Amino acid sequence: MKTVCFLLGVVFLVACESAPPTPAPKKDPHWTKEQSSEMNKELTVEEDIDIRLYVEQHVEYKAQITGSGLRYIPLVTTKGQQAKPGDDAHVDYSVTLLDGTQCYKTPSDEIDIFRVDKSNIETGIQEGIKRMRVGEKSVLIIPSHLAHGLIGDMDKIPPLTPIVVQIELLELK
User: Which CATH number, 3.60.110.10, 3.10.50.40, 3.40.1160.10, 1.10.10.10, labels domain 64-173?
Assistant: First the structure.
């Protein structure tokens, strides 16, 4: 019995040894900044085409395009208070991909609260919410560079993926 316990102990210790570190991938010495810029331009053009096709498929949307590339589509407008930096925005929202895959949604019995321009909410949502007034509902089509960028959200939103946010501004404090 002592021998079995000893062998199990040895196996356990050997199994717990750390594996040798994986070497970092080597940079291509021939890859240039210009090639990176060109690749980024191509990806941006492809993404813009995908977003345009999405908007064309939703003829009911009258999208306003901002200088950053955000598509802002007011669905319900009001004369309520307009969101400004520093406000605590109480919102109800859902996030989907362009293909309709739902990623996130405010639970039906809750609201989400974030500080405008002072939180880690996506840049595209921050930009869109500042265009809204209390009581308004909007659709924000957010290009990847204003959403989760090169790495996605490491969960439900893949890298370099635009998102569609349906959002209602319930209250400002």
Answer: 3.10.50.40
